[in-house]
Design a protein that fits this description.
Helix content is about 40%, strand content about 25%. The chain is an alpha+beta fold. α5 packs antiparallel against α6.
């Protein structure tokens, strides 16, 4: 079967998709609320003496090569004058709710990806505006006037292209990819820039001679599936400019979790139990925000020597914010903990999630 052109594929569906991505969201909120931080390199996250990591970096910090997930000690080495701000997640959540309220003024088809990122399908919209570009510009202006923060937006005919477009001209960018521009745009993208292709996969692709979208497009679907498994189908489609995934306002995440690092290490069970309570409270807060519950609870323990274990329990009834998560987590900790080793990190994750209608309370029992 001959390949269709990207223009033909894109115009066939005629969706109008906007991807909105807040610019350095956590760091920008801190710079907004604290004038002394403005124009200075700043990260949100744990300090170097707490074995922390960077959760977000301001654009001033990024000039030093600092990025999210980088260990705080390395970030400080790259920028000795770096400012470390403690995360204020309740504030970020409140600002995120303001932003989502703005989205819903324009369309009900809003798919949040995180606190600072979402897809909007504006094919049909509340303003009956035919131009998605006009709508994106208005949404950006509303966000700025309401929150004093900037957002970048990408506009195109499917989610993949809109996502790629939003990252083109950060910060405060607005990029449109028309159907007739899609083929050239995708062909020129370095493989590392593709949404859905991470560092390890990109290295594997480079080893196979796939360095750009043009190279990816030359591969058959069967070849990509052979090398990358089921996700090869996705790689094949996006290389052709295809992405028929709808914007899903009821999208549910695969898992929700939280973890904390400790300095000094935790050395007794009482300290660990208190720490685990804090982690469980954060998981419960996220479950409430996402309105979901799950069937599998996973405990993660990292010891001072960097040895790590994970242990899971699957329940016959889903557990959530209304359920006693902490007792189950404590039981797993008591069962599997190596008490002779100090602990540097504890984490909890709930997976196999489902959306919650009305909260329910159930008697839980473990599957054998």
């Amino acid at each position: 079967m001959p390949r269709q052109s990207m223009t033909a594929i894109a115009t066939a569906s005629m969706r109008k998709i906007i991807h909105v991505d807040m610019d350095a969201f956590y760091a920008s909120v801190e710079q907004r609320d604290f004038p002394q931080y403005r124009g200075k390199p700043l990260v949100v996250g744990g300090r170097p003496d707490q074995r922390g990591a960077v959760a977000a970096a301001s654009y001033e910090a990024r000039q030093y090569g600092i990025h999210s997930a980088m260990p705080a000690r390395i970030a400080q080495q790259r920028c000795p004058n770096l400012i470390f701000a403690r995360p204020r997640f309740e504030v970020y959540k409140a600002v995120s709710q303001q932003i989502r309220a703005i989205f819903h003024r324009y369309t009900d088809l809003v798919e949040p990806l995180s606190l600072d990122e979402a897809y909007l399908d504006v094919t049909t919209n509340a303003l009956e505006e035919p131009s998605a570009l006009v709508l994106a510009r208005a949404i950006k202006a509303d966000i700025h006037s309401t929150t004093q923060l900037t957002a970048s937006a990408g506009v195109s005919v499917n989610k993949f292209l809109a996502k790629m477009a939003s990252g083109q001209n950060k910060p405060d960018g607005l990029t449109l990819i028309l159907p007739e521009q899609a083929e050239t745009f995708v062909a020129a993208l370095p493989i590392e820039r593709f949404h859905g292709i991470g560092y390890v996969t990109a290295r594997k692709m480079r080893a196979l001679g796939i360095a750009t979208g043009a190279d990816l497009r030359q591969r058959t679907e069967a070849d990509l599936v052979q090398h990358f498994g089921k996700v090869g189908h996705f790689y094949y489609r996006v290389a052709q400019g295809q992405d028929d995934r709808p914007v899903n306002p009821n999208r549910i995440r695969k898992s929700l979790g939280a973890e904390r690092s400790f300095s000094p290490d935790l050395t007794n069970l009482a300290e660990m139990t208190v720490a685990l309570e804090g982690v469980a409270a954060e998981v419960i807060s996220r479950l409430q925000e996402q309105r979901c519950r799950g069937y599998t609870l996973t405990l993660k323990v990292k010891y001072a020597d960097y040895r790590q274990i994970t242990r899971s329990r699957t329940f016959v009834a889903a557990i959530g914010a209304e359920s006693p998560i902490l007792p189950w987590a404590e039981e797993m900790l008591l069962t599997h903990l190596d008490c002779s080793q100090p602990v540097r990190l504890l984490g909890l994750t709930l997976s196999n999630l489902e959306l919650v209608g009305e909260p329910i309370c159930v008697q839980l029992s473990l599957e054998i």
